[in-house]
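Ticket #4471: structure output looks truncated?

Reporter: J.K.
Steps to reproduce: submitted the chain below (165 residues) through the standard prediction queue, then opened the result file.
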Amino acid sequence: MKKFFIVGMPASGKSRLGKYISSMTDLCFIDLDLEIEKKLDSNVKDIFEIKGEKFFRKFETKTLKEIIESESNFILATGGGTPCFNENMSIINNSGVSIFIDVKREILHERISRNDKRPLLSGAVSLKKKLSDLYKERIEYYQKSKYHVSKDVRDRVLSIINSYS
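Returned output as attached by the reporter:
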């Protein structure tokens, strides 16, 4: 049983990395946000706006637990905030291997500037300040990951995962 969890800031490339790792291994790729969207038949931004963040975070934890219980060999891209709520980081670490993808905030800023689908960042007066504040809030959770990767991300993460074979 191999369960890997990618955590990190919004726009850090968790989903893209997960798809890549899945293509290079026998792991199934799961995107937690997409699973939530399928179950609720709505996108994350609309869920936040209509039902609120509290509802979303509760449903996110429920969905995370369901995936952990029902799947055995996967790489899962969490939402950026997933590790920071409802003891999710403990759930993740007790269920498999967590990998924190730490991307420079300048890169996050550039990626987010091109895409306004992130509910906690859309409409920010100063995206740079909001990103900085969010990083400061979340880093303590991300740092609980078993691995912290900030360079040569694809190769390093693939190497980590292959070491569990």
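Triage note (M.O.): checked the attachment and the full token line is present. The mean pLDDT is 91.
Status: closed, working as intended.
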